[in-house]
Amino acid sequence: MAVRTGEQFIAGLRDGRDVWYDGKQVEDVTRFSEFEPSIAALARGYDLQHDPAHRDIATCASPEFGERIARAFEIPRTMEHLRLKRESFITTATPTCGMLGRGPDFLNAMIMALGVKPNFFAECSPQCADAITGYYEYIARNDLYLTHALLDPQLDKGKLRHEQSDPGTPLRVVERNSDGLVVHGIKRIATAAPYADELLVWPFPPTFRPGEEDYANVFAIPMNTKGLKTLCRRSFASHGPREDFPLSAQFDEMDATVVFDHVLVPWDRVFLHGDIALLNRLYKESRMREITAHQTNARLEVKLGFIYALLVELARAAGLDQHPGTMEMLGEAAVRVEVIRSTTRSAELQATVDADNGVLYPDLPALQAGRALGPIYYPEMINMIRKISGGGLIQLPVSLAEFDSPIGEALEKSLAGAGISGRDKSALMKLAWDLCGSEFGARHELYEMNYAGERSALLAGIQREYSRAGHYRDHLTAFMEGL
């Protein structure tokens, strides 16, 4: 079963997992109203892998596994591999308009990246190297859906983990035995945790210091593991017709806190433990960034392209699409889409082979441009929606069904636009509101703004690791010497 269907994905979620919402335990996540829309969207993504129109993009024949697997698991060794991976990311993101930031392909790509770097994990132990390669094979062969939990609770940010008033709140090892590690504590923010198959845990940011060894662990467990609780935030899903809530009725990703109550992690699922120096090197030297940023930027391209198209239609509905000021703003939006679009393709063209494993990695500096600019571009384009829509966003009918009621004629006259009916214009405005005015939209804006972590740290890291700095400095030096 290397490529699952939507039905198989849903069936796998009925596994006795311990999920809580509003102080109550959820008996069956697949039949819980707050999760059903996202689960259905994810199931459609699994079914897409079997659709003849998309199968050869979304999946591939794997020489390593001897069977067909989801494309995100494929080990890239040629530029064509990278192109097809990007196309698969776009194919997967398009039906959800890029709104599922933690769809299966993101963590699938990350697990592939970790799985092809056994030499890094061997520095912890040979068993850790075997564990990560075995886990990658297991996930790929079963086409499982992962989430991850990276962050500790927001406690006293001026203190290290072991210096907190309760050092047991951040997740840490409390026992090591012949069976594995026993861990206890809390992690957040695990997006899609209620309906993922597995949970990958590793601490971020990788800035561990002496004394924090018990907190330095990388492992994975099933979501129904004994002692693991998933605590959900309030849902931002809208319960109503899709025409009234185009995005929020379908694509609200649930974010969750995961609580570990003396959970046993078997040794074959422990990839790194107790080594703070090695953990601090993980994010960079595993090269997961190149692989995951390739997916991230492809998904963001879809999302920004969708918003650009909405901006154009809103401008037309208002009769402003030829207005110089509006055209300038739309041009700015198009430029933002193209910048993000260019990062993946540029990274593919500048890809290099890693001598350690023969894997072809897309160019990191090109991808980092997207990671740095995406958190700026997204809120800027959302503000463009607010600017073009103006006060019309406020005066919308409760439901588009009102146009078929006795007040429909009055609504039509009051809400019609430039060459567009009142009903059709209202449908556009409801989509705009879902993006810029609803709780769903606010969550997405916050999500994209914080996607790559603290911006100052991201930019400092880009400068610290900028691989082309020497080339440009050499040019400057040669010029100055020539004077």
- Report the major sheet: 6 strands, mixed
Summarize the helix and strand pattern as letters. HEEHHEEHHHHEEEEEEEEHHHEEHHHHHH
Helix content, binned percent: 40-55%
Instruction: Report the average pLDDT across residues.
Output: 96
Strand content: 5-15%
What's the alpha carbon Rg, rounded to whole Å? 24 Å
Q: Calculate the terminal CA-CA distance, rounded to whole Å.
A: 67 Å
Strands across the major sheet, in which order? Answer: 2-1-10-11-7-6
Class from secondary-structure proportions: alpha+beta
Tally of helical runs: 16
Q: Return residue spans where pLDDT drops below 50 for at least 5 consecutive residues.
A: none
Overall 3D geometry? Answer: globular
Q: Please give the number of β-strands.
A: 14
Name the descriptors.
single chain, 483 residues, alpha+beta, six-stranded mixed beta sheet, four-stranded mixed beta sheet, 16 helices, 46% helix
What does this structure look like?
This protein is an alpha+beta fold. Helices cover 46% and strands 14% of the residues. A six-stranded mixed beta sheet has the order 2-1-10-11-7-6, with no helix packed on it. A four-stranded mixed beta sheet has the order 5-8-9-12. The chain is globular and about 75 Å long.
In short:
Helices cover 46% and strands 14% of the residues.
SSE arrangement:
Blueprint: H1 6-12, E1 18-21, E2 24-26, H2 36-48, H3 55-58, E3 59-62, E4 67-70, H4 79-93, H5 104-115, H6 118-122, H7 126-142, E5 146-149, E6 172-177, E7 180-187, E8 198-201, E9 217-222, E10 228-232, E11 256-266, E12 270-273, H8 276-285, H9 288-317, H10 324-349, E13 352-353, E14 360-361, H11 364-389, H12 408-415, H13 422-436, H14 439-449, H15 455-465, H16 469-482
Parallel strand pairs: 1-10, 5-8
Antiparallel strand pairs: 1-2, 3-4, 6-7, 7-11, 8-9, 9-12, 10-11, 13-14
